[in-house]
Design a protein that fits this description.
This protein is mostly helical and about 180 residues long. The protein has helices at about 1-65, 80-100, 105-125, 135-160. The radius of gyration is 26 Å and the shape is elongated. The model has no long low-confidence stretch (mean pLDDT about 85).
C-alpha cells in the first residue's frame, strides 16, 4: 500500500511540475510576443517622427533658400511655402504624440530638443528671426546634431547595436558641399 502511495504522490508531483513549467513557459512566450509588438510600435513612432521632422525642416530650408539664406536647387517663395510648412508642422506634432506615448524618457527628451531646433529653422523661414546665411548654417548644424542625438537614443531604445556614426564624425559629410550641411 505504501508503494502505491509513493507512486501516486510521484504522479501528482510530476503533474504539478509539468503544469507549472508549462504555465511559466507560456507566460514567458506571451511576454516576449508582447515586447516584440511594443518594439514594433515604438519603431513605427520613431520612424514617423523622423520622417515628419525631415519634411518640416526640408520645407524650412527651401523657404530659407528662397530668402537667400541657403543654397538649394528648389527654393520656395513665402507665398507657396508657408501653408506647406504649417501643414508639415501639424504632421510633426501628431508624430511627436506617438513618440510621447511609446518612447522612453531619454528618447522623448531628445525628440523635444530636436523639435526646439527645428523651430529655430522655422523662425528663419517665417522671418521671425533675422540672420545671415552663416547664422542659418550654424542653426542648421545645431539641428543636425540634435537629430543625431535623437537617432542615437531611439536606436538605444530599440536595442539596435549596429554602430552609428555621428554626422560630425563622418568623413563623407565633412566636406564643404552645402548639400552635406
Amino acid at each position: 500500500m505504501s508503494g502505491q502511495l509513493f507512486t501516486l504522490i510521484g504522479v501528482l508531483v510530476g503533474a504539478a511540475a509539468s503544469y507549472v513549467g508549462g504555465a511559466l513557459m507560456e507566460r514567458s512566450r506571451w511576454r516576449r510576443q508582447l515586447s516584440t509588438r511594443w518594439d514594433e510600435r515604438r519603431l513605427e513612432s520613431y520612424l514617423r517622427y523622423a520622417d515628419a521632422i525631415k519634411r518640416f525642416t526640408s520645407l524650412a530650408g527651401r523657404l530659407a533658400a528662397g530668402k537667400g539664406l541657403f543654397d538649394l536647387p528648389q527654393p520656395l517663395t513665402q507665398d507657396a511655402g508657408l501653408t506647406m510648412l504649417a501643414d508639415a508642422e501639424l504632421e510633426r506634432g501628431y508624430a511627436f504624440e506617438a513618440v510621447l506615448l511609446m518612447g522612453d524618457a531619454e528618447t522623448i527628451s531628445a525628440a523635444r530638443a530636436l523639435q526646439r531646433h527645428a523651430w529655430v529653422l522655422e523662425h528663419f523661414a517665417r522671418d521671425q528671426r533675422s540672420g545671415t546665411p552663416e547664422d542659418w548654417t550654424r542653426a542648421f548644424r545645431q539641428f543636425q546634431e540634435k537629430r543625431d542625438l535623437f537617432y542615437l537614443t531611439a536606436r538605444k531604445s530599440l536595442g539596435v547595436t549596429a554602430e552609428f556614426r555621428l554626422r560630425s564624425e563622418d568623413p563623407a559629410v565633412l566636406g564643404t558641399d552645402p548639400r552635406h550641411l
